[in-house]
Automatic annotation (TrEMBL):
This is proline dehydrogenase. It comes from Streptomyces chilikensis. Its cofactor is FAD. Pfam families: Pro_dh (PF01619). It catalyses: L-proline + a quinone = (S)-1-pyrroline-5-carboxylate + a quinol + H(+).
Amino acid sequence: MLGPVILAASRSDRMRRIVTAAPGTKQVVDRFIPGETVDDVLPIVRRLTDQGLELTMDVVGEDITTPEQAEAARDAYLELIARLGELELGPRVEMSVKLSMFGQDLEGGVELSRANVRPVVEAAAGIGTTVTLDAEDHTTIDRMLATHAWLREDFPQTGCVIQAMLYRTEEDARRLAESGSRVRIVKGAYKEPAEVAHQSKAEIDKAYVRIMKILMDGNGYPMIGSHDPRMISIGQELARRAGRKMDEYEFQMLFGIRGDESLRLAAEGHRMRVYTAYGTDWYGYFMRRLAEKPSNLRFFLRSMVSKG
């Protein structure tokens, strides 16, 4: 079970130094994170939207230790939104944000993160798009959902993410499915204790299917975040049984993973969104991508050997 080991390494400063200095790292990072600046990624956004895909953009960076860093994160999103507005890409591109990046874990963090995220949500609405609040580890979920409810009072299109691995998520899904909100379901990419989360892939998969059914049968807008062909097939069948049209739910995949499948689903008429991250503070995001799939780790190790 390499996944938990890699997730633990994602919090290690020593491993951060080793990985970021490794000769083969950049080759693999570029697979998942196509740039460090807005100017780097806008051509990617153009190319993907021209191919019939939609996007959700994530400015990576979670290790916020000062209010000034949280404000800088806010400003990075505002710059992105302004540039998307200039290109009239708003309706095709939403934002994904982690509240930790806006200062949620600092002193007075709930108020600070809300003060920083609200201008981003307002700006997104101004160009015809929206924001989805990403899920983080289980200790943050109540605060994220509270902020989600707070934002939806004025911006009801604001989305949130729930994780199938957590025991609590089925109940969260039942509440959210009845609220008309936009909900992304993922398996989960954090190392969680057995007291709060399923530990085996089989149990997580079963929970994922149960939660998909709750969302498809509800009144919200389900966003199925998965690269698993079986889950995608089950999601299509659950949507059919629930009487949903193709524009009443969507699939989401990460940039750099199963790109051909994304294009295939879009060509069939499904709404298909690509989660695209960029920025300089990529380490935590990158390590979770390695932990999620053994083939990603093998690719990284081969790159290190070939470049070493």
